[in-house]
Structure formats: structure tokens, C-alpha cells
Amino acid sequence: MGILSVPGAALAQDASPAAAQAAKAQTAKPNVVVLATGGTIAGAGASTVNSATYTAAKVPVDKLLAGLPELAQIANVRGEQVFQIASESFTNDNLLTLAKRVSQLAKQSDVDGIVITHGTDTLAETAYFLSLTVHTDKPIAVVGSMRPGTALSADGALNLVNAVSVAGSKDARGKGVFVTMNDEINTARDVNKDINIQTGAFKSQWGPLGMVVEGKNYWFRAPVKRHTMNSEFNIDNIDKLPQVDIVYAYGSVQPTAVNALVDAGAKAIVHAGTGNGSVADRMVKPLQDARGKGVLIVRSARVPYGFVLRNAEQPDDKYDWVVAHDMRPEKARLLTMLALTKGANTKELQRMFWEY
Ligand SMILES: NC(=O)C[C@H](N)C(=O)O
Predict the structure, then answer these.
(1) Ramachandran region of residue 16, left (φ > 0), alpha (ψ -120 to 50) or beta?
(2) Where are the domains of the chain?
(3) Label partner for 50 (CA 20 to 30 A): which of 127, 136, 139, 264?
């Protein structure tokens, strides 16, 4: 073995404690904590051909990590089981518990990055919630899989290795919360689940930030919207989220749902409108009435791409409504809930939709 290949060989020239420490820091692996919440990445099917028929949230985190010896080459990894649920069953309480734990860990000097394993159905929502509420510049990677580990061509193993790699990387610092699926690094704000049966399910309409290939990150863009360190929301100060619900638009839609939600105490209603957030004529009055009772109205679109323009389709200024910009209804709901924890009015909420 040549002298150059001996780790710490440089110490031979300068054996001072400071130099030794610097050399150690250079070769030391990052400490990454994996918070497991369930989902298909922890799922198991009856046979290798069961890629879509299986039970989610079965495999405990220690078993998941033990099955991936590759992780030890990238980082010092330890796991914590926060929940064991399929992500369609996530609640506001789950979001609060998870975000508070992420925030605690991010403050620890012995943690360099955090990975959250999660079901894919609401993964993009949780990732966005974390990016809005956790004040840290440490990388947070949220990851899932489209196939259980028992299936042929299971995608969870590489997705998780890539998540740990990104969470442990210095070059990912300050860039917020990521979703690392299918070799791509997407920013939490933009990414959504767009396909429900293939491994390339997560897409951002504005493109990924980069890719992970063989444990190395290749960055092409950086997020421009406010997140993590620059957010005005802080999970350490939030213990409860207000009721915000979504009303879906379709031909023949009736005001039944809007009226029921107002009666049930909704503080805001996100309208998942057709086209550019358009609203059926028979829905305008019920939404105006809701606004009259103090309920915030957010006009979003059920169309997955593009963005809703203010005062196009409906006179938002006149009705005192807010537009969700390019946020899908389920993500618009999260930002609206957080805005309400600060007592935001429609003007402030609209400002937030432009900024986050
Ligand atoms: N691929 C998945 O993870 C889907 C599953 N239903 C979940 O979100 O937990």
C-alpha cells in the first residue's frame, strides 16, 4: 500500500492536535438520523410479483436500515420509529409531532442531516410542511417508495441510500427540504406525486434541483422561495393547527360541501377549481357568504400544472378572496393553516402565497 493511500498520511508532516482534528473531521462520516413513519417503503407483499398489492407500514426502521449495509459507507445512521402508518392516514397531529422531532434533532450538534421515510401518498405535503416550519440549514430529505421491498425492482433501497447521501452532504446545506426519489432531488415546495403506479412518480413542474448518482449530488438549480431558516413559521411555537378544508369542483357541483364545512367550523376553505381556478356560478354566492362569516376563501386549481392568476376568472379583490398561485389544493391548505396560526388576514395570506 502506498503512503498516499493511508488515511491521515498528511498528519506525518504536521502532528499538532488542531491538524489531527481537522484531518479527522475531513474523513469523518456525517451523522444522519432516519425518522420512520411507515408507508410502502416499509411495506411487504406476499410475493415478488406484488408491486401494487401489499400491506404498507409493516417493516420496522431497524430492519430497514439493517438490510442496507451500503448506508454505513455514507454516514453514521441511526433510526427512530416515529409512526408506522400509511401516509393517506396522516393527520395534522402527525405533522406537528414529526416536525417538532425534526426541529429538535436539527438543533443537536451530533446530527448533520435528517431523513424521513414516508408513504408517498401525502409525502409531498409533509415535505412542504417541514420546509415551512423547521428552522435549520441542515439538509432534510423525505423519501418513500412506490414498490414494497419484497417486490421485483423495489425502489426503496436506492431511494433511501440517496436520501441519506443528500442529508449527509455539506453541499445540500441551506437548500431546504428535499424529496429524493427515482434518482432526482426535488425541492419540497414544488414536488408532487403525479403518477400512482410507477417509480418515477414525483415531479416538480419547475424541474428538479438535481440528481444523485452513485452517492454524489449533481445540482442544477436552487430554490428561490422562502423556506426553513427564512420562514416566518416556526414549529417550536405551533401546538395546534386550525381547521382548513378543501372543496373540489366538478360539473354539476352543488354548495352542499361548502355549507357543511362552514357549519363544521372551517376557518378557511380551499376551492380546488376547474381550469384556472374557475368557480361555478352557483358556487360564488355560497363562497361569498362563507367569506362574510369570516372564513378565508383560497382559489386553487384541480389542474395539476400552471398557476392561478389573481382577478382572472373571478374578481378576487372585490370578493376578498386569495389565490393559491401554483400550490395544489392540498399544499395550499397547509400554508393557509400556518398563516391562520399567525392570525393572517387575506392580504397577508396572499403575500405568503407569493413568497413560499
Ligand atoms: N407508495 C406508498 O407509499 C403508498 C401508500 N399508500 C402510502 O402513502 O403510505
Answers:
(1) beta
(2) 31-230, 242-355
(3) 127
212-228: average pLDDT? 97
Annotation says 256 is catalytic: no
The protein residue whose alpha carbon is closest to atom 8 in ligand 1 is 119
Give the closest residue to 341 by CA, choosing from 279, 296, 277, 310: 296
Q: Where are the beta strands (DSSP E) in the chain?
A: 31-38, 76-85, 113-117, 140-143, 177-181, 184-187, 191-193, 202-204, 210-213, 216-219, 244-248, 268-273, 296-301, 322-323
Higher pLDDT, 89 or 16: 89
**Which of 58, 88, 181 has most ligand 1 atoms within 8 Å of its beta carbon, as the pocket-test mutant?**
88
Q: Determine the Cα–Cα distance for residues 48 and 344; give it in Å rounded to an integer.
A: 51
The whole-number pLDDT of residue 4 equals: 32
Q: How far apart are CA 258 and CA 32, in angstroms?
A: 44
Query: Is 204 known to sit in a ligand binding site?
Result: no
pLDDT more than 90, % of the chain: 92
ipTM score for this prediction: 0.97
> Using a 6 Å CB cutoff, which residues line ligand 1?
39-40, 56, 86-88, 119-121, 144, 146
C-alpha 261/C-alpha 278 separation (Å) is 20
What is 278-310 written as a DSSP string? B--HHHHHHHHHHHHTT-EEEEEESSSSS-PPT
Give the contacts of 322 (CB within 8 A, at least 6 positions apart): 296, 297, 298, 299, 316, 346, 349, 350, 353
Angle CA 229–185–29, to nearest 5: 75
Spacing, Cα 244 to ligand 1 middle (Å): 23
CATH placement of domain 242-355: 3.40.50.40
87 marked as binding residue: yes
Location of C-alpha cell 397577508: 348
- Is CATH 3.90.1010.10 the classification given to domain 31-230? no
* Ligand 1 mean position, distance from CA 139 (Å): 23
